[in-house]
Amino acid sequence: MYKVRSTYEFIQRGMAGGGKARKFFVTPTRYSDRRFLKAMRYYILLTGIPCVVGITFVNVFIGPAQLAEIPEGYVPKEYEYHQHPITRFISRHFVNTPQQEYEKMAHYLAIEQEKIEARQAEKTVKRLMRKRGDGHWYYYPVESPVDRYDEEELKD
């Protein structure tokens, strides 16, 4: 059984008119790999260095929050309970408050309840239509004001 020593020896072609010893190795280019790795290092450093500098600045000069007495009549916001300033910033600007999450869920549940009630009403109407032998319950011919205006013009 032939054992492949490396990936580059797997793709090879013998030279025309030569013996078995002379081989022309066809190797894939490394240009794309090098280009990708250079771009990856560049973008990691482009974003990593400012992030490290910013986090260090916040930790050294601002520091974590200290516990203090809450003044009379003051109600703290949700984001003020976090100790680290970066966590407070993220909680304040990018995360919904528990009140907002509750209201979103209540709205979703109200919409779902309305859908359930509409389906039940439609089911009841269809059942009564079958029972009484009614026609199409959802079709009512309606005359619009435009139709009446056209009929009046035709009569004149």
Automatic annotation (TrEMBL):
The keyword Membrane applies. InterPro entries: NADH_UbQ_OxRdtase_B5_su (IPR019173). Pfam families: NDUF_B5. It comes from the Eukaryota. The keyword Mitochondrion applies. Its main location: mitochondrion. GO terms for cellular component: mitochondrial inner membrane. Belongs to the complex I NDUFB5 subunit family. Complex I is composed of 45 different subunits. This is NADH dehydrogenase [ubiquinone] 1 beta subcomplex subunit 5, mitochondrial. It comes from Patiria miniata.
